[in-house]
């Protein structure tokens, strides 16, 4: 939910009337005037002007930053020194720089400002704002991977004017640091992959006292230095101009990916105009953008300033650790096509330019060489995806709003009546008493416990909305405590900040304050949040934060947080501080009852993956928004936050049956799969849709449930090495250039399942791009597709999801339909097997209790399935822990009930049995093998019936 307009119940009613009146003109667009363009943002304009000056001057441009050689000190994997900035008035400013070479192979460059570190500055307007540049982003974001490399060494063969460091695996990486002008070139195997300040755009706007000019004589460039107004709000900027900027060049790289959140293609576009390009830089300033537009670099709700650059056989990346408003320009240019050049790579250089309004320069550089290496190293720093509770990866039913507890029970009963599985029902804002969180509306939700108990009968869950804005009302206990404990965000004058949000006049909890954590935890306790049970989970919305009457619908930048940090300094991490506090609260709800928290967040930053799932906010019920959801979800995945989804059906407006059906067929491929709808829309629970659409939608949801074992395995993989749960083409085939920009088809984990959802109207065939020359089989009827590097036409009637499986895989699934995923816990498995050209296949399965943290003590099953030389085997990938034996015992009765082999060897026609050998057994038993001949382009298949081997056991099946 969240519609960023202040609405009382009355205006809500009125807008409903207006909506009816406007029903014939559904076209909506974002209110551009509510959000800044680069030209309207002082520091964006200044940094772009710097780039323009540099490119206008070409070779004669020289960066005014030099590393003073006398200050350089290299020890224990870390180089320290002082950068000297020479200003236009020939002042020399000292900027301490650190370059760290990490054990993980990443490098980190930090630049700060000496005067500000020493507090040797004056701040205007008697502001209490912290004098330092914000250096605590990492406190919220980085959880590991900072060990410096002991093996990094100075390269003795360095020319004067340079300091070169060898580091990384087998010293294959080298950082070539030029002193004057300062520049760092990162090499892998002797080839340059990343250049820092190569374009000379390094910029640290140093602190300076304000010089009062005669009226009318202020230099134009100072126009936005000391204060800045937008949309009727004035930012007092007590520290004056303080932006930081830096250019990062990827020589020979044609594609860059990442930096969510934007509603745009996976392969990022150029941002300096021209056909097909953007005019504006990609912006990262977490905002509640009402009715956002597509194909746009505009900011949205979340920010992950992490970018991967990719070319054939090489991926590198950078992570810009800064929590302030950030913009990123991207320009691609023809590389100097020197015929003597050794490089066999792309003739394009991608030049990026990053700048933030405040904070320090803090940049991580990753040298790959594979996308998996980048995911892993980045994840060591910011953490991997939390392994979610199992229910969280099933289907979620939400709308703004289920209006009473009886309504919830009725929806629950209807799903059962129509035999459509679902796991979670959600309550938006209106369940509260007058928009006071941690309370229930006494008229509409008189019996919340009864409702949750009813849901629990089929092990279903409830998620309720809890937002960071607290209704400013004297008789509301949460408001009283917020104030008495001094835990609210303050305005620039140090008073409690008051703004307008859902409840009307509101205050905001300041989760930067450590004291907010125990308090926030106390509010979630079962005895404080009365009526909540242990199957209730939390949705943190509006945490950008959204402030209806604030500048750009958020807080004033000169508001103050704990530590006297200005909101300007911390804006983009604000959202995850709330999620972090909620995560802690969910762990502490009741002693001895520790379950993995489930939290959905709208606002996010790098690191959010450790604590939450995200969705793409308030999308619209249009085909275009359906299409846009795929690159958005894929982008989140490669930026390390793969537990992502979009509102199925579209939030605003009413989807027609075809759109809703196609949206479900696409939505089952979102790692986070939730239907949601605006309060003004018609009810659209899947059982309400008429036939044949109801059945088609039910089948799509059931397909998700059938494949939950494969999904959970993919989530597990993400939780240990950072790989995306759904993967784009380039990630799976990093050497296949024709696939790099493809973002409308996706792979589920490492399963070989390749889905191509239909996202356009009246479309009944589609094409799927296949990169390699393995056979691909239609998942449902085994039609064979083969042929590398081309698009294959695939039928896509409305009741069919275009879905292929590549040869060479073993995919685990569960075929028995149930009401909820928890009820599938003891069901047997089916294994689907396809052979590759060598006649081999492999796959894996991860299972645990789906609920507790016992897996950390060995309570899980992790199997590697292998087929070669006519033997299918299951080997253990797990390691024993204190709880292993106990868990295996509970799973002892869970078996494989069926193995389906697609396109088996022809000789199998004459076979009727297979031999099954369980670990340790002296003799095997047999099971029936049935062979099914198929014609007209469809592969034959064979089925092993009831092998009944234990899912947690070691065994082999001999064909
Ligand atoms: C750009 O160049 C002009 C002319 O040399 C100069 O006046 C201006 O200050 C420069 N701007 C920046 C941001 O460097
Ligand atoms: C929450 O933030 C603290 C730092 O304040 C950090 O140590 C902790 O790891 C975070 N929690 C999670 C679940 O990431």
TrEMBL record:
Residues 212-243 are annotated as: Disordered. Its main location: endoplasmic reticulum. Residues 832-869 form the DUF5110 domain. Pfam families: DUF5110, Gal_mutarotas_2, Glyco_hydro_31_2nd, Glyco_hydro_31_3rd. Residues 722-811 form the Glycosyl hydrolase family 31 C-terminal domain. It is an enzyme of class 3 (hydrolase). Residues 386-714 form the Glycoside hydrolase family 31 TIM barrel domain. Gene3D superfamilies: Glycosidases, glycosyl hydrolase (family 31), Golgi alpha-mannosidase II. GO terms for cellular component: glucosidase II complex. The keyword Secreted does not apply. Belongs to the glycosyl hydrolase 31 family. This is alpha-glucosidase. It comes from Penicillium cosmopolitanum.
């Amino acid at each position: 939910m969240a519609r960023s307009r202040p609405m009382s119940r009355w205006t809500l009613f009125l807008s409903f009337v207006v909506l009816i009146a406007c029903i014939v003109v559904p076209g909506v667009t974002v209110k551009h005037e509510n959000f800044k363009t680069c030209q309207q943002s002082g520091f964006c304009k200044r940094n772009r002007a710097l780039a323009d000056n540099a490119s206008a001057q070409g070779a004669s441009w020289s960066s005014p930053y030099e590393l003073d050689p006398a200050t350089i000190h290299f020890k224990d994997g870390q180089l320290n020194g002082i950068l000297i900035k020479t200003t236009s008035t020939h002042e020399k400013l000292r900027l301490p720089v650190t370059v760290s070479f990490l054990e993980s192979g990443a490098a980190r460059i930090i630049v700060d400002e000496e005067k500000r570190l020493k507090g040797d500055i004056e701040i205007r307007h008697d502001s209490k704002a912290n004098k330092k540049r914000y250096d605590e982003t990492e406190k919220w974001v980085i959880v590991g991977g900072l060990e410096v490399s002991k093996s990094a060494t100075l390269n003795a063969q360095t020319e004067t004017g340079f300091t070169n460091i060898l580091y990384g695996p087998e010293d294959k990486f080298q950082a070539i640091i030029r002193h004057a002008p300062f520049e760092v070139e990162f090499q892998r195997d002797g080839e340059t992959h990343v250049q820092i300040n190569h374009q000379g755009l390094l910029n640290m706007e140093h602190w300076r006292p304000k010089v009062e000019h005669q009226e009318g004589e202020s230099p134009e460039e100072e126009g936005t230095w000391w204060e800045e107004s937008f949309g009727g709000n004035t930012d007092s900027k007590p520290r004056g101009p303080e932006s930081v900027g830096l250019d990062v060049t990827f020589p020979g790289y044609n594609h860059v990916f990442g930096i969510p959140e934007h509603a745009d293609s996976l392969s990022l576009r150029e941002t300096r105009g021209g056909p097909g390009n953007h005019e504006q830089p990609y912006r990262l300033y977490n905002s509640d953008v009402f009715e956002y537009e597509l194909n746009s670099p505009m900011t949205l709700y979340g920010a992950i300033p992490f970018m991967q650059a990719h070319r054939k056989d090489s991926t590198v990346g950078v992570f810009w650790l800064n929590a302030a408003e950030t913009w990123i320009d991207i320009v691609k240019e023809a590389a100097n096509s020197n015929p003597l050049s050794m490089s066999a790579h792309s003739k394009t250089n991608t030049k990026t330019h990053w700048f933030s309004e405040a904070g320090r320069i803090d940049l991580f550089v990753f040298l790959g060489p594979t996308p998996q290496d980048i995911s892993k190293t980045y994840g060591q720093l910011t953490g991997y995806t939390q392994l979610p509770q199992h229910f969280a990866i099933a289907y979620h039913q939400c709308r703004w709003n289920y209006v009473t507890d009886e309504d919830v029970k009725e929806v629950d009963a209807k799903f059962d009546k129509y035999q459509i599985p679902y796991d979670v029902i959600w309550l938006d804002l209106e369940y509260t008493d007058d928009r006071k969180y941690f309370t229930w509306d006494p008229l509409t939700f008189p019996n919340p416990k009864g409702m949750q108990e009813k849901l629990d009968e089929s092990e279903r869950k409830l998620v309720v909305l809890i937002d960071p804005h607290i209704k400013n009302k004297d008789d509301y206990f949460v408001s009283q405590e917020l104030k008495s404990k001094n835990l609210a965000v303050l305005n620039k004058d140090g008073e409690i900040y008051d703004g307008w949000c859902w409840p009307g006049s509101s205050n905001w909890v300041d989760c930067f304050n450590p004291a907010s954590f125990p308090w926030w935890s106390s509010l979630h306790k079962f005895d404080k949040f009365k009526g909540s049970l242990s199957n209730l989970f939390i949705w943190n919305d509006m945490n950008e934060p959204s402030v209806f009457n604030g500048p750009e619908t958020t807080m004033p930048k000169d508001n103050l947080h704990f530590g006297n940090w200005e909101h300007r300094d911390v804006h983009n991490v604000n959202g995850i501080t709330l999620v972090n506090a909620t995560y802690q609260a969910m762990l502490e709800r009741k002693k001895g009852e520790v379950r993995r928290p489930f939290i959905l967040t709208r606002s996010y930053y790098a690191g959010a993956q450790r604590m939450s799932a995200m969705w793409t906010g308030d999308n619209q019920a249009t085909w275009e928004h359906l299409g846009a959801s795929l690159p958005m979800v894929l982008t989140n995945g490669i930026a390390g936050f793969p537990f992502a989804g979009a509102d199925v059906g579209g939030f605003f407006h009413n989807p027609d049956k075809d759109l809703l059906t196609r949206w479900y067929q696409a939505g089952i491929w979102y790692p986070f799969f939730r239907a949601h709808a605006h309060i003004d829309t018609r009810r659209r629970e899947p059982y309400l849709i008429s036939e044949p659409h109801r059945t088609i939608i039910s089948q799509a949801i059931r397909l998700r449930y059938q494949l939950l074992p494969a999904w959970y395995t993919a989530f597990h993989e993400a939780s240990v090495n950072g790989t995306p749960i759904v993967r784009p083409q380039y990630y799976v085939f990093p050497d296949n250039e024709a696939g790099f920009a493809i973002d409308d088809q996706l792979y589920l984990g490492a399963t070989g399942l390749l889905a191509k959802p239909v996202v356009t109207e009246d479309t009944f065939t589609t094409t799927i791009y296949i990169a390699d020359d393995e056979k691909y089989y239609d998942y449902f009827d085994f039609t064979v597709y083969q042929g590398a590097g081309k698009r294959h036409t695939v039928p896509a009637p409305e009741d069919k999801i275009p879905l292929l499986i590549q040869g060479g895989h073993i995919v685990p699934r569960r075929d028995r339909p149930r009401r909820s995923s928890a009820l599938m816990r003891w069901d047997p498995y089916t294994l689907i097997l396809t052979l590759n050209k060598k006649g081999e296949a492999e796959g894996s399965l991860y299972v645990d209790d789906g609920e507790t943290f016992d897996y950390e003590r060995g309570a899980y099953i992790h199997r590697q399935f292998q087929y070669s030389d006519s033997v299918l085997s299951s080997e253990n990938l797990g390691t024993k822990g204190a709880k292993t034996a106990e868990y295996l015992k509970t799973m002892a009765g869970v078996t494989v009930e069926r193995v389906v082999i697609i396109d088996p060897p022809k000789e199998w026609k004459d076979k009727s049995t297979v031999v099954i050998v369980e670990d340790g057994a002296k003799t095997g038993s047999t099971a029936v093998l049935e062979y099914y001949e198929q014609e007209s382009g469809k592969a034959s298949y064979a089925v092993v019936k009831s092998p009944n081997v234990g899912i947690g056991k070691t065994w082999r099946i001999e064909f």
